[in-house]
Write a structure and sequence with these properties.
Blueprint: E1 2-8, H1 11-27, E2 33-37, H2 41-50, H3 55-58, E3 64-68, E4 70-72, H4 82-89, E5 101-102, H5 110-124, E6 137-140, H6 156-160, E7 165-169, E8 176-180, H7 182-186, E9 190-195, H8 201-209, E10 226-232
Helix pairs in contact: 1-2
Length: 239
């Protein structure tokens, strides 16, 4: 597994560089490019960058198939919706077919939607050598407790689920979420963590240095492919 760390002076500079990398990565694909994205403040900055010139004109959006790493069990117009955030900051500003957008329906019955989403991914994505679906690129963040997607510490979904998607509960609020599993994430060709802010510096240092292996984010290691870290200088403070 190749592991790369990239550090930038600010979240905005990070987003600009990631947008350039994204344009290059998608343009190299001769067929569909299968992407799974996360919510949060840092992806929002990245999405806003992609919605600007030149990226909104130059990215090969027709090749892109967009999925979500996780979703809160709320309607798409709710302020907590990861899909809603992406729509407002990116999807409404680019030319992409509705057929290329594969949202998790947070308003649906959670367990049934997890099964449906798993079947959709299994049907649409190409298979890796292990005959399991494979994303081209997965973009992740890290929570203050070390969670990623909606894989929380000590959750049943984290330790017992070998499927494509499942249902999780936030350990504090009890809010239900639908999330990709560790298995499908680690089967990806490329995984990128995008982390900004001083509040993530301690846990990020522990994860990258291997001091704590029980954090969900520390369990993300692609079996084949690359793992890279996109950090601002505050998040990278202790590295």
């Amino acid at each position: 597994m190749e592991n790369r760390i990239r550090m930038f002076d600010s979240p905005q500079i990070l987003a600009m560089n990631l947008a350039e990398e994204f344009k290059k990565e998608v343009s190299q694909s001769k067929d569909n490019f299968y992407l799974a994205i996360s919510g949060g403040s840092t992806p929002k900055i990245f999405f806003k960058e992609l919605a600007k010139t030149p990226f909104k004109e130059e990215v090969a959006w027709l090749h892109l198939q967009i999925f979500w790493c996780d979703e809160r069990c709320v309607p798409p117009d709710d302020s907590d919706s990861n899909y809603g955030m992406t729509k407002e900051n990116l999807l409404d500003h680019i030319r992409i077919s509705a057929e290329n957008i594969h949202r998790i329906k947070g308003e649906a019955h959670p367990e049934k939607e997890a099964v449906y989403y798993s079947k959709e991914i299994d049907k649409l994505l190409p298979k890796a050598k292990n005959n399991f679906p494979q994303f081209d690129w997965v973009l992740l963040g890290i929570g203050a407790d070390g969670h990623t997607a909606s894989l929380f510490p000590n959750s049943e979904l984290l330790y017992s689920c070998s499927n494509i998607a499942g249902v999780a509960e936030h350990p504090v609020t009890g809010q239900k979420r639908i999330s990709l599993t560790e298995k499908i994430i680690n089967n990806s060709k490329r995984i990128s963590f995008i982390v900004t802010g001083k509040d993530k510096a301690n846990i990020l240092s522990e994860i990258i240095k291997g001091d704590h292996k029980n954090y969900p984010a520390a369990r993300i290691k692609p079996a084949e492919g690359t793992l890279d870290w996109w950090l601002d200088k505050e998040a990278a403070f202790y590295l």
